[in-house]
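stage 2 :: seqdesign
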């Protein structure tokens, strides 16, 4: 995550998903921003949706108005704005920048785990998503990724997980199923699933005692984002089945 992304259309959907998750399960959430420095690029410029409240505000009017007011205020874009706005109840935030150097990264992660104590759920928001072979742990640019050893440690500490994952140049059906299978292996005993948006997939791993809340999460998303969520995708799927791809909607999949 970068502060320059704050408030764009992907953020709006992301906070909507988190609000549904918190409300459905009454979870105590830790948001780990996994912040990296702004890079001066045009990323995060997708805020024109705020000029069309008739189309966009109905999904979550309070959230929409909060983001619009924060961006209209002229203040520097920063995740701290949403932290102070209080749109995510029962939520703590972990804000230190992610370092590249392995020894510093280890200390950063230990601090994250300490902050996660007392929380049920951890949302991890890396720039790009889960690790790739071209960026080994500790190398320059590794701060943009979440690593599987970190996923395993958080899971073994009893936390359910939601992970931001950018799409790559791979067939989306195949990519999602590959990531879900890898997530399942990293989180023994979990129920894993995915929430899709046009550019991003959110991977979820639910602890056994949290699986019961999945249907309520889906129901709330359908109620709040009705024409952006496909009800036909709200079903339990085996790992041999694939979600429909090519849609611009948010969709959810929960394999057995």
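stage 2 :: out
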């Amino acid at each position: 995550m970068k502060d320059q992304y704050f408030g764009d259309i992907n953020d709006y959907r992301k906070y909507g998903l988190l609000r549904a998750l918190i409300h459905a399960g009454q979870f105590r959430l830790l948001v780990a921003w996994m912040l990296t420095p702004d890079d001066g690029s045009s990323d995060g410029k997708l805020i024109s949706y705020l000029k069309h409240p008739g189309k966009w505000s109905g999904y979550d009017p309070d959230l929409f108005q909060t983001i619009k007011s924060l961006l209209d205020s002229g203040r520097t874009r920063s995740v701290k704005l949403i932290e102070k706005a209080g749109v995510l109840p029962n939520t703590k935030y972990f804000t230190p920048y992610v370092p590249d150097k392995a020894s510093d990264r280890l200390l950063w992660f230990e601090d994250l785990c300490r902050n996660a104590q007392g929380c049920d759920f951890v949302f991890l928001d890396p720039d790009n998503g889960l690790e790739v072979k071209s960026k080994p742990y500790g190398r320059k640019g590794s701060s943009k990724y979440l690593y599987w050893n970190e996923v395993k440690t958080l899971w073994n500490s009893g936390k359910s997980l939601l992970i931001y994952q950018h799409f790559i140049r791979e067939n989306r059906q195949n990519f999602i199923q590959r990531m879900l299978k890898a997530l399942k292996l990293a989180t023994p005993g979990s129920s894993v699933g995915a929430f899709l948006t046009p550019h991003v997939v959110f991977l979820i791993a639910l602890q056994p005692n949290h699986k019961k809340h999945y249907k309520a999460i889906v129901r709330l998303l359908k109620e709040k984002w009705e024409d952006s969520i496909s009800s036909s995708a709200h079903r339990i799927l085996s790992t041999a089945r694939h979600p429909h791809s090519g849609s611009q909607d948010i969709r959810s999949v929960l394999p057995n």
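stage 3 :: structure notes
- The chain has a mean pLDDT of 86.
- Residues 61 and 201 are 23 Å apart (CA to CA).
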